[in-house]
Structure formats: structure tokens, C-alpha cells
Design brief:
mainly beta, six-stranded antiparallel beta barrel, 2 helices, 11 strands, 8% helix
């Protein structure tokens, strides 16, 4: 049987895709589609650096919304975790963000050397290219979808027709060479 693109390009990256989970200090999981908390990320250095989207992390206004959404809850702090495919969890130590690009680089202390993904330049993506998105949507770990690049409206966004669902944010967009060319950020649909 011939090897397909997904087998050679996307599957080798599966182990580098992580879940980002947001818990309050009492251990209550507060991910909620309405609040847009939690998502995906991808390992970019052997020393524990993870690339994801900034909007995966709650803001002070989100804290107020959590307290309104969970009557009687008082959010006194937030615990942020990176969860690997083997269910190992690591607390996030540091977060560096770019508001304009909606990108976050987080660091973790892990007990082993990680395998980073290969990264590519944005200008290596063209309309018509086949790409894959890997993420953790709706509680499904390491879910993969395939799409075609339909438009590149600016040097910050790639529009594609692959399914992107809540929880995919921060997951890698992978080109035919098995390189990460972007992060899943938003889904536009009816309504």
C-alpha cells in the first residue's frame, strides 16, 4: 500500500500536539465553549517550549464571567496545565504573548527531552495547498482534519476549509512537508 500524505506529513507530529487546560485553584475544570478556555498547542523546543494561541488563556474579564457562569464560585487563582498524549500533566511556568498575533509561547518543566516540530515560513504556503490541522476539539485528543488553503488575505492569516472546532485553537496547521505553517485560531460558520 502506498504511503499517503497524512501518514508521512501529519502523523509524525501527533506526539508533539498537547492539550492546554485551565483549572481554578480548587481543581474545577472551567473550560467552556462560551468562555473559550483551553485548547491545543505544539512543542517547539526540546526544553519544554509550547506554541499556542493567546486567547486560550483567560483574562481578568473572563474571571468575572466564570464567576457568573458558575453561581457561587469564587475564582481566586488559575492553574494552567499542558497535557500530553500519554496523559502526563505539567504546570505552565511562564507565558509570553503577542496580542496582535494572538500567539503565546509557554514553558514547562518536564522530566524528559521533548521532540520539537519542524517550523516553516509563512510564505511557504500557497492557495490550493493541502494542509492538516491537529488539535483537541470537543474533548477528542489528537484529532486531525484535512483541508485546502482557500485564501491568504494577509501575512497573518491562512483561510482553509479544514474543520476547526472549540479546543482546536493553538493546534498546528501542517503543510505537505510535515512542517508547521500556522496555528488554528478561529472558525467561521453560520450565525
Amino acid at each position: 500500500r502506498p504511503v499517503t500524505g497524512v501518514q508521512t506529513c501529519a502523523l509524525p507530529i501527533f506526539e508533539t500536539v498537547v492539550s492546554i487546560a485551565i483549572y481554578d485553584v480548587n481543581g474545577i475544570f472551567v473550560e467552556n465553549e462560551k468562555l473559550r478556555m483551553g485548547g491545543s498547542g505544539v512543542v517547539v523546543s526540546s526544553g519544554g517550549m509550547i506554541l499556542t494561541c493567546k486567547h486560550v488563556f483567560p483574562t481578568p474579564s473572563d474571571m468575572n464571567e466564570i464567576e457568573m457562569y458558575f453561581p457561587g464560585a469564587k475564582v481566586t487563582g488559575i492553574s494552567r496545565l499542558v497535557i500530553f498524549s500519554d496523559n502526563k500533566e505539567y504546570k505552565i511556568k511562564h507565558i509570553a504573548v503577542s496580542d496582535k498575533a494572538d500567539v503565546a509561547l509557554v514553558s514547562i518543566d518536564c522530566d524528559n527531552v521533548l521532540t520539537p516540530v519542524p517550523l516553516s515560513y509563512f510564505d511557504n504556503v500557497n492557495v490550493g495547498d493541502v494542509v492538516w490541522v491537529i488539535g483537541n476539539p470537543c474533548g477528542f485528543n489528537q484529532y486531525i482534519t484535512k483541508g485546502i488553503v482557500g485564501k491568504i488575505p494577509s501575512d497573518e492569516y491562512i483561510m482553509l476549509d479544514a474543520d476547526v472546532n472549540p479546543g482546536n485553537s493553538g493546534g498546528p496547521i501542517i503543510n505537505k512537508n510535515g512542517e508547521v505553517v500556522g496555528l488554528a485560531k478561529a472558525s467561521f460558520g453560520p450565525g
